From TrEMBL:
UniProt xrefs under Pfam families: Thioredoxin_4
Domain annotation Thioredoxin: ranges: 27-183
Residue segments, region Disordered: 22-57
Extent of Basic and acidic residues compositional bias: 41-53
Keyword Protein transport: no
Superkingdom of this protein's organism: Bacteria
Gene3D superfamilies cross-referenced by the UniProt entry: Glutaredoxin (3.40.30.10)
Keywords noted in UniProt: Signal
Record flagged with keyword Signal: yes
Protein name, UniProt field: Thiol:disulfide interchange protein DsbA/DsbL
InterPro entries membership: DsbA/DsbL, Thiol_disulfide_DsbA, Thioredoxin-like_fold, Thioredoxin-like_sf, Thioredoxin_domain
Length: 242
């Protein structure tokens, strides 16, 4: 079981230039449909990137897979599985933003981050869940991506949250609530396990249809597939656990 150690006053996100360069997608990567392996696990084993054999051009493979529904949805639901250190998740983010700006009001969008079993990125996932809880995820998420992929720095995570519009006392309280953060980690882990998410970025629609960059045929096509599957019949509205 993952043990979270979160000390707010010493929680400083520093950009590592060498790591940023390593994680930036290069021209070759952008021409291939890329994923980072994301088999859910609670150990600290490192999961590497898998760039082999995935062409962006549309292939004969289906643009989405249909899964067994295991959760109920009261509204249309889109779930993105991603890792902050994943360059391909970073690349997809701009398309996610465009889609979010135009999505139907009744569609629920959920972000599920993973550290891919790497402790050095656990703090990013923790910050994500705190930002989500305080209603400032839209402002904080680009900052977290920016540390890794753009060489930016967050010298004081508390100040960053306050500048994003959160109350200082509430930020401190949220970061100190280790039980809540651990609960969110565990929920994300279980959801990935339940739907056998093996790579990121992946997008699950209505707990029934799964797509990714490879299946969709490119970064710019992922959310076209999301819209297509949102229009399909879904079993999640009638699902009830035994």
């Amino acid at each position: 079981m993952r043990i979270l150690t979160i000390a707010l006053l010493s929680f400083v996100l520093l950009a590592c230039q060498s790591e940023s360069e390593t994680n930036k997608p290069n021209a070759t990567e952008e021409k291939q449909a890329p994923t980072s392996t994301a088999t859910p696990k609670k150990s600290d084993d490192h999961a590497g990137d898998d760039h082999s054999g995935h062409a962006h051009a549309q292939t004969d493979q289906p643009i989405f897979s249909e899964l067994e529904v295991q959760d109920q949805c009261a509204q249309p639901t889109v779930i993105e599985f991603f890792a902050y250190q994943c360059p391909h998740c970073y690349k997809l983010e701009e398309h996610a933003k465009k889609w979010l700006a135009n999505k139907a009001d009744d569609v629920v969008f959920i972000s599920v981050p993973t550290d891919l079993g790497r402790q050095e990125f656990t703090q990013f996932v923790a910050a994500h869940y705190v930002a989500e809880r305080l209603g400032v995820l839209e402002q904080i998420k680009p900052l977290l991506f920016g540390v890794i992929h753009e060489g930016k720095q967050i010298n004081n995570i508390l100040e960053a949250f306050v500048e994003a519009g959160a109350d200082k006392a509430e930020v401190e309280k949220a970061f100190q609530d280790v039980d809540y953060i651990k609960k969110r980690f565990d929920e994300g882990f279980e959801l990935m396990k339940r739907y056998k998410v093996s790579s990121v970025p992946s997008v699950l629609v209505n707990y029934q249809y799964m797509t990714d960059v490879s299946k969709a045929g490119g970064y710019d096509k992922v959310f076209n597939v999301v819209d297509e599957t949102l229009a399909k019949p879904t079993k999640c509205t009638d699902f009830s656990k035994p």
